[in-house]
Write a structure and sequence with these properties.
The chain is mainly α. It has one domain (23-182). The protein contains 7 helices and no strands. This is EXPERA domain-containing protein.
Length: 198
């Protein structure tokens, strides 16, 4: 006569979404996406396609962009402003920021607030694009012609802006990839057990 032990009920913590307090890295990502969303909508979108879209923005925001360009001499945003043929690649990045990344920010913020795992792949895609494109800008300033006309103080200021926007997306990409692998691992193990039982 076989005896069966009663199955233990699943722990509620396995099913309930974790609070933000339990996810310190997600708090960092949430702050990053929030800041980037505001900057993209208020500043970067002024220099994206269609051309001359700055006229659609309030004067205070146009003044913020103008003051930043005058103080930082950001070679990429200045090139986008004058529609430089040598920086078409950066204008394409600005367009992708408006058309692809801004929606990603909104979805990622929603996913992080609700601990929604279905947004992990999207954040991997975003992080890969953001980290690689920002690294390209950093290398162009440090080792390319874009940094030749800049002072050391201006280069340091640009790096203060660029480096965090390269490091955090890199961390985000690696973290989300590991989370996805962790979610897939139990299913793979279960499949192997089922294969042995057949």
């Amino acid at each position: 006569m076989s005896s069966t032990s009663p199955s233990k009920p699943a722990s509620p913590s396995l099913h309930r979404p974790r609070t933000l307090a339990e996810r310190p890295l997600d708090i960092l990502y949430l702050a990053y996406f929030g800041i980037h969303l505001l900057a993209s909508l208020a500043i970067d979108a002024q220099l994206t396609y269609p051309p001359y879209s700055q006229t659609l923005f309030p004067e205070p925001l146009r003044n913020v962009l103008r003051d930043y360009l005058e103080s930082s001499k950001d070679p990429f945003l200045l090139a986008a402003e004058r529609a430089s043929a040598e920086h078409v690649w950066f204008r394409v990045l600005l367009a992708s920021e408006t058309l692809f990344q801004i929606p990603c920010f909104a979805v990622a913020i929603w996913g992080l607030i609700h601990d929604e795992k279905r947004t992990y792949p999207l954040m991997v895609c975003y992080g890969t694009l953001a980290a690689s494109s920002t690294l390209q800008c950093i290398c162009s300033v440090l080792f390319g012609a874009d940094g030749h006309s800049l002072t050391k103080a201006q280069i340091a200021g640009l790096l203060q802006n660029y480096v965090p926007f390269c490091i955090i997306p890199t961390l985000l990409t690696l973290d989300m990839m590991l989370r996805i692998v962790g979610l897939l691992a139990p299913s793979t193990a279960a499949g192997k057990v089922e294969g042995k039982d057949e």
